[in-house]
Structure formats: C-alpha cells, structure tokens
Write the structure tokens for this entry.
Amino acid sequence: MRLLGCLFVFLCQSLSGQTLIDFALQDITRVIMYDMYSAPGASRAYAYICIAGYEASCVTDKHYPSLTTHLQAAPKIRRPGKTKKLDPERVAAYAMYITARSFVYSEELLLEAQQKNLGLTDTDDINFQFGNRVAEAILDWASTDGYSQTFNMDRYNPLLLPGTWEPTPPDFAPALEPYFGTVRRFITGTEFVQPLPPLPTFSVNQEDVWHTYARAVYDSSFTLTQKQQAIVFFWDDNPFEIVQKGHLQYAIKKVSPAGHWLDICRTALDSVHAGALQRSQAYAWVAVAMADAVYAAWDTKYAYSVLRPETYINANIDANWRPLIPSPPFPEYPSGHSCISAAAATILTQLFGPDFDFTDASETQFDLPARTFNSFAEAALEAGISRFYGGIHYLPSVEAGAQLGRQTAEHQLEVLK
C-alpha cells in the first residue's frame, strides 16, 4: 500500500486550489451539520462516503491500490473498461455525493449542491456512471454492517449501580447509540486492538482516587484561564446543543468531531497543493481511522458505563455545580473526542510528518478565532484536554481515549503498509 508519508510526493504531483472532492466534502459536512447528526453517526457516514470517493478515483492510477482488500467484508467493484476517460476529481465527487444522499435526511440539499458543483447530471457521462456504481456497491456494503439492527435492540436502561452512568442536566437525555460498539469495524482485525482496562473500583470515600478525579474537574472549573475556556469552546464540536436561558430554549448546531478533523485534513492538503488522488486517499484514511476509533470508544463506554463528573460532583461535592459545556448523553469512559482526535492525528502525522505547522480555521464559521498548532499531535492533545477543562471528563478518561485512538490508527497503518 502506497503511503503519502513524504511531502515531495504531494509537491511533485500538485495542483493549486481545492478540488471538486473538497467542495463535495464541505457540502456534505454542511448537510450533516444541518441534519444534526450525532458524533458517532457522523463518523460512520464520513467513512463510507470517503471510501466511496477514493474507490471511484483510485482506478485511474495504478499507484493507488484499492482499500477493499483491507476492509472487512468489502465489496468487489467492477472496474470500467476505459479508465483513462475517467476524471479522478469528478468521479470521486459523484461517488461521494451519491453515497452521502443515502446517509442524510436532507437529500434535496445535497442534490442541489451536487448540481451546483458538478452541473446537471449527464447520465451518459462515464464519471457519473462509475461514481454511481461505486456508490451503490458501498451502500450495499454499509447495509450489512449491523448498524440498522441496533435500532430494533432493547431500549438501554441505566444500570443504577454505584458509579454507573445516568442521564444528566439540563435535558436528561436518554443514552445515545448504546449499541454502536457492536457495528462491524472497517479495517481487518481492528476489533482485536488491545481493549482499555477498567478504572479503579468506584468509591465515594474522600480519600479514594474517585474523589481525586472528580475534585480535579471541580477545582479546575473555578480557575480556568481565558485561553483554557477558548480551548473548550473551540473543540466543543457538539453537533446539537440545547441552550436554556430562563424560559428561553434554543438549539445550536455545530460540526462533529469527525467533520472538524476532516477539515484539518483539508487544510493540510491545501498547504501542500495536493492533487485529487492524494486528497481522496487522505480523506479515506483519516475517516476510516476515526470511525473505527469511535466504534472502539463506544464499545468501551457501554461496557464500563462510568458516571459523568457532573453526577459525582452533584452528589458528593456541590449539588449546584454545572460543567462549562453540557455533559453528552452517554457514559464517560473513555473520552470519545480524545479517541477520535488521536486517531486522526496519528494518520495525519504519517501522511504529513511529525512537525507540520497549520492553522485550524474550521471554527471561524461559529465566530471562534482560528488556532495555530505545531503538529497534529499537539492539536489532538489540546482537543483531549478541552474535555477536562469543559468539566465533562475525568483526566484518566482523556488519557485513555487518546491511547485507544492511537492504537486503532497504528493498527490501520500496519495493515495498510
């Protein structure tokens, strides 16, 4: 499997400006955000969409082999007879749009975006025909991963045992995606990545480690600097947040963690003037790593069902305390954002190098200033610690999530090399 680990590979095969692939992914992200996709659901959708884009474009260049030999139960896609007539940029965009329309609720918005980006569809266009063929194969494959079966599983009921998760204020929402960890992984063998050990036995004794965990979150909330608060909101990435002010209640839509990191990937690709094939491959690698990391994180979350800091603090330290950002409606351990971020950063470091400077402007659309980093690892570390600063994760969970995300991505790199 050909790696994009050296910058000269990008520079030797460069073009200036973004491609149809980038515009397609940005359109898809806007609709995913508009539809208020959950963080785990978005990660799954992005993986299938980005795989479709890469599989449609990689047939145009023998140096870019298919990912399907390394994906579990992946489909065999019949190649077109005359691949030289394919435009890798255009065929990838078609495959992504068509695949994405089956994942979102607002299909008409994506169809409008597709027509604006690619023009009115010419059904005789070989790029449309092959892009559609790839999309159909990917969607058939996605239908067998077990996700749809989770909708018919028993409603998840909190365990109601000491130290276990329970719904949190302000809306006390039910558990989100309790069976997501049962869905088929993408990369072969990912389910055998070393699982995380449990946290220490729960106790409310003030001399116990659990009190130390919760007290650290509580004390930190009163000493946050302006920079630390800015970090919290920059990496919040809550796809749908209910804000309550007195009797007023309104919703805020934001990009998901996976969407945030794919935009970081785009920023890096832009900076080295990457071409269409490099872009479609990078997006697929990063999206797959994040999806498998989320599956692993959700499997662990519901296996251990750890209570949120808010629950512990309200019961044992301060009944009126609230975190800086709302506690998400699922178990605490490990931090999902830490897991996603570490997985994405591990892949991006392989592709672009360990000391890659970049400015992340993905949150400026929400009136948050851009942030500059010296490496992807530095950005992932900041994303992880933001969950501790925000009051929704214990520090050991942040560290464990990062460990799980790195291990998942490292396994992927080992399989793909």
About this structure: The two ends are 5 Å apart (CA to CA).
